[in-house]
């Protein structure tokens, strides 16, 4: 279903198994992030929560999507993931049910996100590029999500604006988000 016009046409599964329409976020800026609790980028949860607290009243929603496709870094159940996010990082933004972001079983939302913002992943990604070149070279030059904590910025109209690789911290992308909120 890559023919969709916006993310609002997709539904996702909450951590407790309910269906949630992304249309519920209409007219808000959305940051969609694939997350994991045992990753070197996991401390970004703190920055994401700080960004959430600073901008939620101005129109930003952060949506976390756990994924275990990268180094088995999200092995927990949905309940365990919720507990981890709450107790370790005091996360208050929604963290949905675990899903796949790449491959034949990729969630349709992620198929859409990847097609809309394939990224420009290359050597300028530094150590992450070296890691991917060594461990997942077949993904270089494709629209696949390369690792945990890849971020997709979505405008108030539901269209994907930009993709940020895992190495881009919430603090670094805050200025881009602020431009959409003001």
From TrEMBL:
* One annotated GO biological process: cellular response to oxidative stress
Write one Pfam family the protein is assigned to. Answer: GSHPx
Q: Encoded by which gene?
A: gpx1
Report keywords, A-Z: Oxidoreductase, Peroxidase
Q: Name one GO molecular function term.
A: peroxidase activity
Can you tell me where the transmembrane regions are?
none
Q: Which organism is it from?
A: Nocardia aurantia
Write out the coiled-coil annotation as residue ranges: none
Report what the protein is called: Glutathione peroxidase
Please tell me whether the keyword Cytoplasm is annotated for this protein: no
**InterPro entries the record matches:** Glutathione_peroxidase, GPX_AS, GPX_CS, Thioredoxin-like_sf
The record places the active site at: 39
PROSITE patterns the UniProt entry points to: GLUTATHIONE_PEROXID_1 (PS00460), GLUTATHIONE_PEROXID_2 (PS00763), GLUTATHIONE_PEROXID_3 (PS51355)
Query: Which family is annotated?
Result: Belongs to the glutathione peroxidase family.
């Amino acid at each position: 279903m890559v023919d969709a016009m916006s993310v609002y046409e997709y539904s996702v599964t909450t951590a407790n198994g309910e269906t949630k329409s992304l249309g519920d976020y209409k007219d808000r800026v959305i940051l969609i992030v694939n997350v994991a609790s045992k990753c070197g980028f996991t401390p970004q949860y703190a920055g994401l929560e700080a960004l959430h607290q600073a901008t939620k009243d101005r129109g930003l929603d952060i949506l976390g999507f756990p994924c275990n496709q990268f180094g088995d870094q999200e092995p927990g159940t949905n309940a365990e993931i919720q507990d981890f996010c709450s107790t370790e990082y005091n996360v208050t933004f929604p963290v949905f049910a675990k899903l796949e972001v790449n491959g034949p079983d990729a969630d349709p939302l992620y198929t859409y996100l990847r097609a809309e913002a394939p990224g420009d992943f290359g050597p300028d990604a530094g150590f992450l590029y070296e890691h991917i070149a060594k461990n997942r070279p077949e993904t270089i030059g494709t629209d696949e999500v390369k690792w945990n904590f890849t971020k997709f910025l979505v405008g108030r109209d539901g269209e994907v604006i930009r993709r940020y690789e895992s190495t881009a911290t919430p603090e670094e992308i805050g200025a881009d988000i602020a431009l959409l909120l003001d």
